Amino acid sequence: MASAISFAVALTEFVLSHWGEDDVVFSSFLASTHNLEVYFGDISKAHRNHAELARQFLSNATPAIRRWAEAEVANEEAKDNA
Questions:
Q1: Angle at 53 between CA 76 and CA 78, to 5 degrees
Q2: Residue 20: exposed, middle, or buried by beta-carbon count in 10 A (0-12, 13-18, 19+)?
Q3: Nearest to 15 by CA among 26, 1, 6
Q4: Which one has a higher pLDDT value, 9 or 19?
């Protein structure tokens, strides 16, 4: 499982570093970030955890990853405060 996650991270970084400035690619990535995700238990805590995870990418070297992190933090904080 760890190798699958490492592959997904590397693939995501490759795609976003090469095509992340393309609006279609970036918006498709944003739209699929939580696709088919199911919540149970403390949903507010889940949103806070997502925001905290995304904060780790705010200083990433890839501009599109930073842009995703900014959008993810804002989106998850808005859901938590809803």
A1: 10
A2: buried
A3: 26
A4: 19
